[in-house]
């Protein structure tokens, strides 16, 4: 009996991990983390009970909710090959190493073991180009461009006359830094599709555009913090600001890029042959002999705009340190641009403003997304015309008709 079981990332966003038991083989797609330290990654004991052995691990892309614990699961299955795209493999090293570093801040435990697991996991990665085939006995797997971010892949699986398409995080629309997804031309039997924005209406952005908000705050003498996800969102925001400066819609002011986004920009640059930094937009300087908070103060003397991770203002991150400084003055602004988990400081700040009276600055949210909205998700369903659709990676609420819950067995 063929089946799929979400170990995480079913009726939630976070800790994505999907076990496929098909054609007599066991294939794990993704193994990410949650932003909840008490239960950060999917249940390894449950996975081991279902699959004492794995035939393959596939990582769809390098956001940590999909890959943040891949080294841990690989350590439990040391003989299992890991498949991903060339770009994702390069990004994994930076993203997961940073996630480990953040995880152990303020903790007594040693991080050495996890770094060793990460080094060992990289030796098991087999890098693949889009549209190349992966054969596991009678199972044929093809990686398709998913849009979303650099290197992101959807997965087409064929076995015993059946066809399944696992979208991963997907965006049909082109972004500045990555083209939209490519779908199979054939009909599929089963569609397993993300549903980040399938059930919820997209939040309305302010009446003004992002460049207009930036321009208005700069004109009144304010400084701006734009918290960003290091991978994908940072590169899009930088590209928007760079282009709008060229058009004259944003004044030529100093912009510093800080946190992990600096390093990710370098990886993007040599993969898509696009430059992010110029005379006005620069990596934030480092200062010897200064604490990080003091470095932030120094950077804000030079720069009018700070683009920094984390996108959710998680504590112990650069953007959190900048926010505490920028928040002191009413003329300044913090502009969020994406998803905020309820556990994050960013979510609490934007939804419970009265609890944080020390933040006197303006707080805005402009919605930019690398996920397909409901209309495009319906287009995917229509084009692939699957006999069975399974929705994952979302919060269905009462809408449970097609949605898979964590640990639920879905027969294919």
Automatic annotation (TrEMBL):
Q: Which CDD domains match?
A: TTHA0252-CPSF-like_MBL-fold
Say which domain of life the source belongs to.
Bacteria
Q: Tell me the leader sequence span.
A: none
> What is an example of a Pfam family matching this protein?
Beta-Casp
Q: What UniProt keywords are attached to this protein's entry?
A: Hydrolase
Instruction: List, for all copies, the residue spans of the domain called Beta-Casp.
Output: 234-349
Metallo-beta-lactamase domain location is 14-229
Gene Ontology molecular functions: hydrolase activity; RNA endonuclease activity
What is the protein name given in its UniProt record?
A: MBL fold hydrolase
Q: Which organism is it from?
A: Desulfurobacterium indicum
């Amino acid at each position: 009996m063929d089946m799929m079981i979400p170990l995480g990332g079913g009726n939630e966003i976070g800790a994505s991990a999907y076990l496929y038991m098909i054609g007599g083989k066991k294939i794990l797609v993704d193994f990410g983390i949650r932003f909840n330290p008490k239960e950060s990654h999917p249940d390894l004991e449950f996975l081991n009970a279902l699959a004492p052995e794995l035939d393959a691990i596939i990582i769809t892309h390098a956001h940590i909710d999909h890959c943040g614990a891949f080294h841990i699961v690989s350590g439990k299955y040391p003989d299992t090959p890991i498949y991903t795209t060339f770009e994702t493999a390069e990004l994994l090293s930076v993203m997961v190493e940073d996630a480990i570093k953040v995880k152990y801040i303020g903790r007594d435990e040693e991080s050495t073991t996890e770094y060793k697991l990460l080094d060992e996991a990289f030796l098991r990665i087999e890098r693949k180009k889009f549209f190349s085939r992966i054969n596991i006995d009678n199972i044929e797997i093809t990686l398709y461009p998913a849009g979303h971010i650099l290197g992101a892949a959807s997965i087409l699986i064929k076995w015993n006359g059946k066809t399944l398409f696992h979208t991963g995080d997907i965006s049909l629309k082109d972004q500045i830094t990555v083209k939209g997804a490519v779908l199979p031309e054939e009909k599929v039997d089963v569609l397993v599709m993300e549903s980040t924005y399938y059930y919820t209406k997209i939040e309305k952005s302010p009446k003004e555009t992002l460049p207009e908000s930036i321009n208005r705050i700069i004109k009144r003498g304010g400084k701006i913090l734009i918290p960003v996800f290091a991978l994908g969102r940072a590169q899009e925001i930088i590209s928007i600001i760079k282009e709008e400066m060229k058009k004259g819609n944003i004044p030529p002011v100093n912009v510093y890029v800080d946190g992990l986004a600096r390093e990710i920009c370098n990886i993007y640059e040599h993969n898509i042959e696009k430059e992010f930094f110029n005379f006005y937009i620069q990596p934030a300087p480092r200062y010897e002999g200064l604490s990080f908070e003091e470095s932030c103060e120094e950077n804000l003397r030079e720069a009018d705009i700070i683009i920094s991770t984390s996108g959710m203002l998680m504590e112990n991150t650069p953007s959190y340190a900048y926010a505490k400084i920028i928040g002191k003055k009413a003329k300044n602004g913090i502009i969020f641009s994406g998803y905020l988990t309820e556990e994050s400081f960013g979510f609490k700040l934007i939804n419970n403003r009265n609890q944080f009276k020390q933040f006197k600055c303006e707080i805005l949210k402009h919605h930019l997304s690398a996920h397909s909205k409901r209309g495009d998700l319906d287009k995917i369903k229509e084009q692939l015309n699957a006999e069975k659709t399974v929705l994952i990676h979302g919060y269905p609420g009462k809408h449970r008709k097609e949605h898979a819950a964590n640990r639920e067995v879905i027969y294919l």
